[in-house]
Structure formats: structure tokens, C-alpha cells
Amino acid sequence: MARNPKQQRDASELQERVVFIHRVSKTVKGGRRMSLVALVVVGDGKGNVGLGTGKSAEVPLAIQKASDNAKKNMFKVPLTETGSIPHDVMGEFGAARVLVKPAIEGTGVIAGGPIRPLFELAGIKNVLSKSMGSSNGLNIIKAAAEALKDLSSPEETAERRGLTVAEMFVGKEN
């Protein structure tokens, strides 16, 4: 599958987790046509994570398609030394909203349902999250992914503002 040895090694380091498999149907002239939708999260536990969906008439094929899609759609998540995120962020997708907050060391992953595998495979060890709005698992996990994409490290923020990291925090002792 992978063309060069580096891609092959990177693919072997990735962990994969099936979040859910749903059966969907399409009504046609002769009755209902059933198929399956799989949602898969792929990550290396070091800040790289992706999610993808796949649709097929058979479970293994749907999972394989979802896994390939997730590997194509990977993104980087900035992490702190304590295994948390740098700042609060709100992600939205459709009617789903997800609030993600950093937590102190020892808190663990406080996240419900489909969001937990996304955080775990991204390598986030201490985080708080709250899902609001929609209860649709697909929209919730996409909102959480949007929140993680909106994160920026202190270095990126300082560079964008034309400051050093130390200059950004001067006068914040209040």
C-alpha cells in the first residue's frame, strides 16, 4: 500500500479505533437497500489524529474505507508538557457544539461517547469536554475535531502577534 518505507513505518505506528457502525437503508422501487456506515478514528498518540467515514454493504469493507479516509484527513494537535491542550476552545459542526478545556495533570480524559477515542488517539491525557446541542454521534465527533483544529500553540500565537512567548505573558500575574 505505502510507496516508500517512511510511509510504511508511519502507517504501522498508527492506532485505529472504530467509533461506531450504523446500518442505513435507502428505499428503492423493489424495497429497502441496506448498507453500513463506519466511523473510524486514527492516531499516533503524539498529536496526530484523523477521522473518517466509510460506507459499504459489508462491515470489513466499510471499516477499511473509513480507515483510509481517516488517514487522508489527519491533522496535528498542539499538546502541552502535561498532555493537555493549550487553551479552551469551542467547536461547532451542524447543530452540535463541543466545549474542550485543558485540565491539570491527573484529571484524565473527561469526555463522553464518541469524543473519547478522538482525544485518546491524539495523545491528549488531561482534558475536560462538554457536548451541547445535537446528540448525533457523527456531528459531535466532527465538532470536537473542529475544536482541536482551532487550537494553536503558544509559539504559533506569539509568531502571529510578532512577539516572543515570554513577551506574551508579561503583566499576566493578576
Mean pLDDT: 88
Query: How many DSSP H or I helices?
Result: 6
- Rg from C-alpha positions? 19 Å
Could you give a short account of the major beta sheet? 4 strands, antiparallel
Distance between the termini: 55 Å
C-alpha geometry: elongated
Strand order of the largest sheet: 1-2-3-4
Structural class: alpha+beta
The tally of strands reads: 8
Helix content: 25-40%
N-to-C SSE string, H for helix and E for strand: HEEEHEEEEHEHHH
β-sheet strand percentage: 25-35%
Low-confidence stretches: none
For the structure shown, list the relevant keywords:
174 residues, alpha+beta, four-stranded antiparallel β-sheet, four-stranded mixed β-sheet, 34% strand
What does this entry look like structurally?
- The chain has helices spanning 5-13, 59-72, 115-122, 137-149, 154-161, 165-168, and strands at 15-28, 31-43, 48-56, 74-76, 89-93, 96-102, 109-110, 127-133.
- With 174 residues, it is of the alpha+beta class.
- The strands form 2 sheets. The chain has a 4-stranded antiparallel β-sheet with strand order 1-2-3-4. The protein has a 4-stranded mixed β-sheet with strand order 5-6-8-7.
- Strand 2 (31-43) and strand 3 (48-56) form a beta hairpin.
- The longest helix has 14 residues, at 59-72.
- It is elongated and about 70 Å long.
- The mean pLDDT is 88.
